[in-house]
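ENCODED BACKBONE
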Amino acid sequence: MPSHPDAVIRIKNLRLRTFIGIKEEEINNRQDIVINVAIHYPAAQARHSVDIDDALNYRTITKAIIAHVESNRFALLEKLTQDVLNIACDHPWVTYAEVEIDKLHALRYADSVSMTMSWRR
């Protein structure tokens, strides 16, 4: 069987609200964030299957991200980004994952401030 480059799952513009920051206003009020995730995996079985168990389930990954982000408080964008990256690369099939999180309206004249982190097996 010919080898194929990894398949890429992209979760685009996942809009959530969480406690992020160190100022009193940030500690007391949820803020809008936007999460983008790219997950690479071989998908060798899924390419020729109809069985969900042969694929990486992006719904399961997204639900885990939502649950973690919405039920925790984060002082630093770095910690939030690393936590989401840990969820994205948790499955043993994942060969590479990248997470970008935008904290909306973090600066007066900018749409957002974002943090990007990646991981490779």
